[in-house]
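DM from R.C. (forwarded with permission)

"hey, sorry to bug you on a friday — could you get me a structure for this? deadline for the figure draft is monday and I only need the backbone to look sensible"
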Amino acid sequence: MRDESDDAIPPGRLRTMQIIAGALILGLAIFLAIVVYVVHVQNQGQPIGQAQGPPILSVLALGMLAALSVVSVAVPNAMLRQHIRRIACGQVTPTVDQPAPTGDADQLLGLRQTTLIISLSLLQGPAFFCCIAYLLEGRIYALGGALLAILLLGSRFPTEASLRTWLRRQLDAADAARQQINPDTAP
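My reply, with the result:
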């Protein structure tokens, strides 16, 4: 059985996740601003590349964004399910920042940080590709893809409330998994 102290979010852990997410979002936003400046101010609205022929890069960038948007949800969820099974079996999984986690919450928060980085990175790559496609081909929908990616990245920014809700849900899932493995131990 767990108590409310299991749901405590260490401020350093939350701040680290916020810095990572903020840096990934800000890096993309700065690059997007540079691309828009180059196209609209330096080149008077003309792309760097020649806008003749089909917009292959723009279409590829949007397709990559669509595909990896799905993957950015599926991969972290699969990692989470696997990790919850390990927790239920009593296997401690050390992380770089915490070689010997003290409890389920520590393990889950370490995993949350890892999956956050993976999830955001899977969106950031195609967003940079959309920016480059806009720079080279000048298609407005490539610029829209980059803006959409920034919105998706921002929607995953960790707050204390969202992290606490996520942690409670995962701790409950770990307890339920333990019950399935060993029904004799009631929480």
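R.C.: lifesaver. The mean pLDDT is 87.
me: no worries. DSSP finds five helices and no strands in the chain.
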